[in-house]
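Appendix B. Raw example, untouched.
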Amino acid sequence: MNYRHHFHAGNFADVMKHVLLVRLVSAMQRKDKGFLYLDTHAGRGSYDLGDASRGDTLERAPEWPDGVGRLWNHMPELEITRDYLKIVRDYDAERGNTEATPRFYPGSPQIVGRMMREQDRMLLSERQTDECDELDIAMGRQPRCSVQARDGFGSLRATLPPPEKRALVLIDPPFESPDEFKAIAKALKDGLRRLPRGVFAIWYPITQRARVNGFFREIQGVDLPPTVAVELTIAGEDVEIKMRGCGLLIVNPPWQFEEEVASDLNELKERLAQAPGGSSHFDWLVPEQ
């Protein structure tokens, strides 16, 4: 695969994913008992937004100005969004940026790593060798963190159930393979068999509604516990934007997650909309009992 996330780092999809990830980690930490954070496609963990305008061969418009750039000089109303933005700002400053605009953006491993307690643990998988080498460097000082150069779906089979008996699993593949959704459904089924009460968060792009609905039908073939799809779109269906939205499918969402996330989505919808017709949705595929 030739995927390089730094071209997309800090865009609206990253903002949405990372705000909800902060929400999920905070919910896991309501209990004193530690948990495992497993990232199946961790990437390099750290991104220089200056690279976002340099493609493999051609200059390209960076995506972060319509993502984290829209929050940078804004004070969010909600505490969880403020917490996310503080992590990003602190990381940017620690990397040496003194400009008024963001330069360095933390990936999911860095964001979660800054929230870890002594009793929590991280396992990060990345199968692209060069990306994994960068990830290992980026996470070198993080305690209780393991980096593995391996297929992330395989790490589910190798790791679950963890000794902690609690886990938050982020599945965020590059979606370059036409069979990506099938691979996710298979991995999810495998993961739930090993840890039925684990929290699984699966990021997906919204490019064609039919493809997403096909994914939902695919995973409903799995014997799912409570499962919800949280979606944010930045434009209506008639707007010519390649990726007009994204979603996070959450299996075994934390208690009261719907009420908390509804406010997050409303704030993000207002700040990140790029054209009329943007929306947010919280849809139960399998309702809570």
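End of appendix B.
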